[in-house]
Amino acid sequence: MPVIATASLTKRYPRVTALDELTVEVGSGVTGLVGANGAGKSTLLKILLGLIAPTAGSAIVLGHDVVTGGEAVRALVGYMPEHDCLPPDVSATEFVVHLGQMSGLPATAARERAADVLRHVGLDEARYRPMGGYSTGMKQRVKLAQALTHDPKLVLLDEPTNGLDPAGRDEMLALVRRIGTEFGIPVLITSHLLGELEHVCDHIVVLDGGRLLRSESKAALTGETGVLAVEVRDLSGRDRLGAALTRSGARARPDGPLVLVEITGDETYDLVRDTVAELGLGLVRVEPHRHRLEEVFSV
Ligand SMILES: Nc1ncnc2c1ncn2[C@@H]1O[C@H](COP(=O)(O)OP(=O)(O)OP(=O)(O)O)[C@@H](O)[C@H]1O
Fold this sequence. Notes:
This protein has about 300 residues and is an alpha/beta fold.
């Protein structure tokens, strides 16, 4: 059974159709929800939580209809909102304990659970300080922690890397990956940057103007291309190899440190091996070239 299933889901505001007949399923693992600003990602998340009502169509989350079973859905789902929503004058510990209790945990369990999730997201001593003094990265971590407090069966993360520098972004994405793999909790994560989801997601859903553009497993999207990627030790070697392969009738072109060679059959592998040996080049690697997600969506 899918974790999330929508059917012809539509949300119209007076001036804009934010979601337009969206039919999509989300399963276990980490799913990336990608789209430009205004594509409808936040609107979809709010409908999935039962916070706003769709204009038409339906959405089922963990077996519950979001219109009639919003409360049941929110008991089972952790949500990290996009915008800053943390009270500045309380500490992360006080905040997460409070939300744990709001979710129905007894006081002691809420305190233990808050300590666990805040440690998990990497907030140690800082968790006792008022959140008004936190960096953006720390605030994002608290927002992630509170989404995990009540042992959710699904987490929805709205742009968790927003405002983070590259290192903070990598750390946040690593945390998201752990939620999906080590804890086995299905994750739906939104981003307007396709490239950053490449390493953490098992499945990618792309929205454009409220409509479904694609929904595919990452393996299908980044599958082999019929091209061999060859890396030799230096760039002059790369150029000599490319020229020699072209002289031998292969289609070869440079790509960063690589030479990309179109595979026409087993003879392509033999030709690459023999040419590298003849030129006396130091071979670093030979492997089937895979699409990167950004290439797939830019065509
Ligand atoms: N409460 C609202 N009233 C009117 N229009 C809205 C409302 N909320 C969202 N919209 C519009 O619906 C469209 C989709 O917005 P949404 O916030 O879902 O997009 P998004 O993909 O999450 O983008 P972002 O990353 O910028 O939040 C946008 O055109 C937005 O202006």
